[in-house]
Batch of 3 targets.
Target 1
Amino acid sequence: MLVVERLQRLGFGPFELTLAPGECVGIAGPSGAGKSVFLRMIADLDPHDGTARLADAAREAMPAPAWRRLVTYLPAESGWWAETVGAHMTDSVRARALLPALLLPDDVLSWPVTRLSTGERQRLALIRALIQEPRVLLLDEPTSALDPAATAAVETLLRQALARGTSLILVSHDAHQTARLGRRQLAMAAGQLHAVAP
Amino acid sequence: MTAISLGYGELALASLLLWLNGALSLGLGLGLERQMLVAGVRMVVQLLLIGLILRALFAVSSPVLTGLAVLVMIAIAASEVYARQDRRVAGLSGFCVGAVPLMAATVSVTLLALLIEVGPDPWYDPRYTIPLAGMILGSVMNGVSLGLSGLLADAARERAAIEAQLALGAPRFVALRPFLRQALRNAWIPLINQMSAAGVVTLPGMMTGQILAGMDPVEAVKYQILIMFLLAGGTGLGALGAVYGAAWRLTDERHRLRLDRINAG
C-alpha cells in the first residue's frame, strides 16, 4: 500500500493519497495543473516537502534508486540513452515476451532507437518499466501517442498488472480511459487534488 | 650550449612582417589593422614583462616566490576555465569544480616531475618549476574546460535520457555514465592527437626551443617525451576530477538530476 503525505513543491499541493495494492487511481486535469509535478514528487525526482511510504517502508529510509524500482514513474515523453532498444532492457527475455501483447514487432529489440516511432517508444518504455515489476506505476499519459488498437493493448496489459497486485496512478486527458481502468477518479486543478463523484 | 643572442634591432626588423600584414589589411579593406596593432603591442609588452619577472624569480630562487608565481598562474587558468563555459554550475561550486581539479592535477604532476623525474637542485629551482608547471597547466586547463562544457551541455540536452534511467532506479553515476564517458573523451582527444602528431606533423615548441638553445636533439626529445607523459597524466586527472565533481553537483544525495544548479553563462 502506497501512502503519500503532505507532498508539496512550488505552490503545488500539499497532496495526500492512499493507494491499495491492485488499485488504479485516475487523475484528470488541464495542462500545468500539477499532475506531472505530483507524480515526479512521489518518485522523488524533484526536491520537495512531505513524504511517502510503501506499506511500512518509509521512502527516506531507503536509497532513492531502491524506492524508484518499487515506485516507478513513466513520463509522457520517454528518454533513451543507448544505441539499440535492447540495451535499455534489464531483462531481454521478459521484454521479448511482452512484445506481442503490445503489437510490437518481434525483432524490435535489435533496432536502433532512432528507427522507433513515437508510439513504439511509448509502448517500449512501458515494457522497460513493467519487466522490473514495480509495486506502483506512475503513468503520465501512457497512451497519448497511440492509435485505438495499441491503446486497447496497453489497457489490457495494465489490467493484467492490476490483477497481479501492481497499483497504478494514471494521469490521462481521456476520462474514459481512467474510468475503464479504475473506480477512483481524482481531478487536479490549480495544484490541488479533488475527488470526483463516480 | 648557448643560443645566439638576438638584438633589439633584429626584432624591430622582424616586426616589419607585422607592419606588412597591417598594410595589406589597409589595402584590401579588411579592417583588421587596429586589432593587429593592439595584439602585436600586447604580445611584445606581455612577453617582455614575463621575461623580466622570470629573470628576477630565477635570480632570487626563493621557494615562497616560486610557489606564489605558480599559484597566480593557476588562478588565472582557473578563471579562464570559468569564463569559457557556456553553462556553469551555479554558485561558488561553479568555480570550484574547475579550479580544484585544475590545481590538484597541476600541483601533483609538477611535484612528481620535479622530485622524481628531473630532480633539479634545489628541487624547487624556478628555472624548472615555472616552465614545467606552465606547460602542464595549459594542457590541464584545456582538458578540464572541454570536459566540463561537454558534460554540462549534455546534461541539459539529455535530460529525458538521464531521468528515464533515474526513474527506473539507476544510481546517479550510472545514469550519467554515457555522458561522463563522452565528456572524458572530449577532454582526452586533443592530447591523443598531440601525441600522435608529435615529431611527424609538429615539432613541439619546447623541444624546438631546446634545440635552438643548443641542446642535443636526442636530449631535447627525451625532455619532450617526459613532458608528453606529464601532460597526459595531468590532463587525465584534471578532467576526471572536474567531470565527476560537476556530475556530483548536478545530482543530489537522493539521486535526482538538479538542472536548477546550472546557469547559462
Target 2
Amino acid sequence: MLKVKNISYQKDYNILFKNLTFQAKDGVILHVFGINGSGKTSLLKILAGISTAEKGSVSLDEHDVKSFEYKKQIFYFGHLPSLNLTLSSIDNLNFLTNLKQSTNKTLLNDALNKIGLKGYENEYCYRLSAGQRRRVVLAGLFLSKAKLWLLDEPFTALDKDGIEIVKQCINNHCKNNGICIIVSHQDNIFANQEVLEL
Amino acid sequence: MNIYFQTIWRDLNIAVRNSSMMLNPLLFFIMSVSLFPLAVSPESELLAKIATGVICVSSMLSILLSINILFHNDFENGLLEQMLISKHSLPFLMLSKIIAHWMLTGVPIILLSPLLGLFLFLDIQSIKILMIVLLLATPSLSFIGAIGASLVVGVKNSGILLSLMILPLYVPILIFASTAVNNFIEGVDISGNLYFLATIQLVCLMLAPFISSVAIRISLE
C-alpha cells in the first residue's frame, strides 16, 4: 500500500499543495487530475523520489521514499522521453530497463512487439514519430517488475490502438496487486479507477 | 553487461554516432597547437621551450570545450531522472560517464601529443614524460570539469559560468604538468610533480563522482 501523509510542496513562491494525504491500496488505479500548474507532475516527482516534499512522508509497504527497497519498486514515466535519438529503440529500452532490473534481448524484442513496434527494434529513434518514441519507453511497462507505476500523461501522442494496449497493460498490472498512479487530462480512463483532484 | 560498463559503452556509442561532438575538441587541440609556430616563431629552440606549456594549455581548453555537454543531453532528455531513481549507485553512474568522457577527450589528446610534440621540436625523452604527465593530468581535468558541469546542468547558456568556475581549479594541474616536463628538460628531478599530479587525480577520483551526484540531485529537484 502506498501511503502519503501530510506532504506540502512549494515551487518558488507558489504553494502547490499543503498537507496532502491519501493512500492507494494494492490493485488500485489512482487518476490524478487538476488544472495546469496545480502540481500533478510535482506530486509524481515526489512519489518517484526525484523531488522532496517540504514536510510529510511517503511510503510503500512501510518502506520510506528514500529507501533502496522503495526505489526498486517504482517505474516512473515522466514528461521527458529519456531516449537518445541517435540510438536504436532496442538499445534505448535495454539501457532504461537495465537501470531497474536485468533483462535480455528476447524479453526486449517481446516488449517492443507487444507495444506495437515490431520491425522497429533496430530503427534509430530520430527516425520514429513522436508516438512511436513514447511507445519505446512505454514498452518498459511490459518488462517492469515494479509494484508502483507512476505515469505522467502516458497517452499523449498515442493513437487509439496504443492507448488500448497501455490501458490493458495497466489493468493487468493492477489485477496482479500492482498500484498505478496516472496523471492525465482525459476523463474516466478506467472504470475501476479512484480519483484524486489537485 | 554490468550497468556501469553499459553506461560507458552507451556514451562512446553516442559520441561515435555524433562524430562532430567528439572531433570538435580534438580539432581545436590540434589547430591551436599547430598555429603557435606560425604565430610565434619557427625557431626550433624557442618552440621546444614553449612546447609543453602550449600542449598543456591547449589540452586543458579542449577538455573545457567538451565538458559542457557531459550531462547536458541526458538532463534535457530526462535520462538523469531515471538514473537518479535507478537501483544502482548514482555516484558510480556519474563515474562511468566521466570515464567515458576521458576516453573520448583525454585518451586522444595523449595519443596525439607525440605527434604535436615532434611538431614543436620536443625530443623523444621529453615526449615520453609529456605523455606520462598528460596521463596523470587529463583524468583530473575531466573529474573537475564534471563537478562544474553537474553544478550548471540546469542553467541555460552556462558556458561562461562553467569556464569561470573550472579554470581556477585547473591552474594547479597546469602548473605541475608543464613544470614537470620543463624540469625534465633542465635535468631537475620531477618525481615531486608526478606525485602531486597523481595525488590530485586520486583525490578527484574519490570526490568528483559524489559531488557530481549531489549536484545533479539538486538540479533535478
Target 3
Amino acid sequence: MLTAVVTRGAQIEVSFVTAEEGEGEHSIDCEFPVKDEQGHETGVCDTGPSPIAPEMKEVAWGAGAFIVMALLMRFFLYPRLKKGMDARYALIRGGHEQADAARASARAEVAEYESALATVKAEANDRVEAARQILEAERTARLTDVNADIAAKRDAANAEAAAAREAVRSDIAAAVVDVTSRTIELSIGRVPDASPIRSAVDEAMSAGVAQ
Amino acid sequence: MLALEFPPINEILRWKDLFPTFNKVALIGVAAALIAIVIFLLASNQDGLKAPKGVRNLAETIVEFIEEQIIMPTMGRQGLGWTPFLLSLFVFIYLCNVPGIIPIIYMPATARIAIPLVLSLLVWVVFIGVGFKHQGISYIKNSLFPPGVPGPLYILVAPIEFISTFLVRPFSLTVRLFANMLAGHILLVTFALLTEELVQGDSWILKPVGVLPFFMLMFITGFEVLVGFLQAYIFTILASVYIGGAAHPEH
C-alpha cells in the first residue's frame, strides 16, 4: 500500500512509499539545525517559533516599511497625485460648464432665431396674402375691363359684320335685280318695271336667310 | 490507498535570514512599500492635467476605488481625509499578498502573522484614537453602553461590547488576513508537491493522474489573485468601518 510522505529538509520533497516503509522518521537535511555552544550541529532540527507567533524582525520591518510608506503617502505622494486629479477634474468641470453655457446660449439663439423666423414667416404670409388680394382685385378689375373691351369689340365687329353683310346683300340684290331685269328685257323685248323685281328679289333673299 | 504526510507549517513558511534580522517576509514587506512608493511617485510626477495613462492611470484608479468603494459607503464625504491611510493599507496588503503567486518568490508576506498583526494593531490604535478625538471620554461610554438598551441588560451588553470592540476587532482583522493567505499558500504548496511527485514519480500509472492536481494548482493560483485582492479590500473596508464608527457613533 503506497503512502505519500513529504520529507523535510533544505528542499521539500514528497515521495510515495509503502505504508510499512512510511513508518518512522523521514527527516534528512535540516535547514535550521540546532547548534551547541561550540557552534557544531547537534543533529536536531530547530522547528522554529510557532507559526502563529509573530517574529520581532518581521514585525519591525513590516511596521517600519508600512509607516514610512503611509507617511510618504500622507504628506507627499497622495497630495501631489490628488492635486493633479483635482486640477484635471476642475478643468473638466469647467469645460462641462462652458459647454453647458454654450449649449444654453446656442439654444437661446436657436429659440430667438425660430421666433424671428416665425415672425418673418407670419409677416411674409401677411404680405403674400395682401399681395394676393391686391392681385386678385387687379385681376378681377382687369378681367372686367378686358371682358368689357372684348364685349365692345365684339359688338363693334358684329355691327361691322352686319353692315358688311347688309352691303353685300344690297349689292347681291341689286345684281340679281339687274340680271333679272336684263333677262326679262331680253325675253319680252322691253325694260320691265324694276320695283316688282326688286320686291321679289328682296322677298326671296329674306326667305333664304330665314331658312 | 494514498496518504499525504504534510510537514509542519514552519517548513513551508520559515526562511533563512537574508542577513541578520532580515528574512524573506521582511524583504517582501519592504519591497511592497518601495513598489507602492515608486508607483505613486511616478504617477504624481506626471502631468495631472492630461488624460491619465500608464502608471498614473493605475494610481488614480486605486485612489478612486478607495474613495468611491471604501470610504464613501462607510464614512461618507467627511471620511475622505482618511484616504492616504486607507490607500496605504490597501496597497501595502495587496502587494504583500501578491508574491504568493509570483514564481520564485511564492510567499505572501501576510501568510506570516507579523504583518497582519502590525497592521491590525495600527488600525486598532487609530480607531480608538479617532474615537477619543471625536467623542472625548464619552467614547468609552458610547462604546460600552449603546443607547436604546434596557438598563439591566447593560450588565451583559457592556462586557460584550468591550470584548467585541476593543479586543476582538484587532484579533479578527489579524486572523482573517493571516489565515486566508496561509491557507491559500498551503493549498498551493500541496498541489504543487502532488503534481511534481505524480508526474516525476516512477509509477507510469500515476503520471496521468498528475494532471488533476496540476489543474487544481492552476485554478487555485488564479483564485489566489482574487483572494489577495479580496483580503486587502476586506481589511481596508473594515478599518474604514471601525474608524468611521469611532468618529461618528450615530452611524
